[in-house]
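S.,

As promised, the pyridoxal-5'-phosphate run. Input:
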Amino acid sequence: MSNNKYAVNERGYYGQFGGAYIPELLRANIDELRGNYLKIINSEKFQKDYKRLLDNYVGRPTPLTKVANLSKRYGTNIYLKREDLTHTGAHKINNTIGQILIAKYMGKTRIIAETGAGQHGVATATVCALFGLECIVYMGALDIERQAPNVARMKMLGAKVVPAISGNQTLKDATNEAIRDWIANPNSFYLIGSVVGPHPYPDMVTRLQSIISEEIRGQLTKETGNPNPDYVIACVGGGSNAAGAFYHYLDEEDVKLVAVEASGLGVNSGETAATITIGDVGFIHGSKTMLMHDEDGQITEPYSISAGLDYPGVGPLHAHLAETGRAQFLSVTDQEALDAAMVLAQSEGIIPALESAHALAALEQMTFDKDDVVVVNLSGRGDKDMETYMKAINN
Ligand SMILES: *Cc1c(COP(=O)(O)O)cnc(C)c1O
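Predicted complex:
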C-alpha cells in the first residue's frame, strides 16, 4: 500500500506539519529510534511476534459488527469496528504492544511514559508487566488525584507512578518530566501513546494502529464484496485510533474520512478541545502541528468531558488531512456525546467509551444514502466512564 500524498516524508513531515523540534540533548535518542523503527517493523520476525501477540494477548481481530437498529435510525448501513473488545478495552494496546517489542529489539530495559487520564499509562504498564520491563509513568499531580482508579491499576501492574508537580500539574508537565528522564537515561525507551511527538513517533504509532483498517478491509470484503466503505468515522484526541482506522484508506479518495473532535461546552465557550476547529499552527510536544493557544502564545488548557480527547494539540498527520481537505473535521459537545452513548447502549446493548461516543454523535450531523456503508471506529468500552454516565442519568 503506498500512501504517498499522506505519508510522512524522509524528514518527518506531512505537508508542512511534523518534524522533530527537540532539545539537542535528545537528538541521539531520536536518531537511534529513527534509524531502527522501520527496519524493525518491516522485519519478518517483528511481524510474526507482533501478530502473535495481537491474536493471542490483545484478542484480535476485533469484530466488525453491523448494527441493525442504529442503521435503521440513520437510514443507512452502519458497522462498528470493535476496539472496545480488546484486552484492556481500547485501541491503545495495539500501540503499546508494538512499541514494547521495538524497545526489546533495541535492547532497552526500562520504559518511560507520560499519561494524562491514565489510559495510556495503564496500557503501558500492562505490556511492561508482560515483558518484565521496568515501567516509570509520569503523571501530573492533579491528574493523579482525579484518576485514582487508573493509578491503582498501574500500581497493581507493577509500574512506578511519578507525580509531576510543576505548572498546572497535568499532562504537559508530565511530558516535560518524561523528556527530562529520557535525556538523563538514554538507555530507556520513551513510549508515546498517540500519533504525536517528534518524528518518528507519529509515523511509528500510525503504523502500529494501522491493523485497524487492515482488518476492516478484509472484513468488509467478506461482508459486502468491497474493501472500501463510503465513510470511516473516528474520534480524535491525539489521533491514534483515527490514524489507524484511516491508514489503508488514505489514498482511496472515494472513501470519505471523518474525524471528530471534542468541543466540550461548545467551540467558542473557552472550555473545548476542538483543536482543528479553533486552533492555529504552532509547536507542541516536539512537532509542528495545530494547537490551541491564547493571545500570548501559551498553550491553552483543553477541556472535554472525555479524558482521552482532552488534549490541546493533534497529531501532524491530522493537521495535514485537515489542511488538504482529505478528512472532514466535525466537533461534538459533551452533551451530544452523552446522548449518543445512551442511544448506542439502549439500541445495541453496547456501552461505548465517552471518546467513542463522540464519533457516534457525528452520525447526527451527517446525511447518508440508504446504500452507503459507514464504519464507525468504536475506540473503547465505557466501563471507565460509568461514574460520568451515572451522573448524566441521574440529572
Ligand atoms: C485515549 C483514547 C482516545 C483518544 O486517543 P487517540 O490517540 O486520539 O485515539 C480515544 N478513545 C479511547 C477509548 C481512548 O482511550
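The mean pLDDT is 96. The chain has two domains: 13-54+92-205, 59-89+210-394.

- D.
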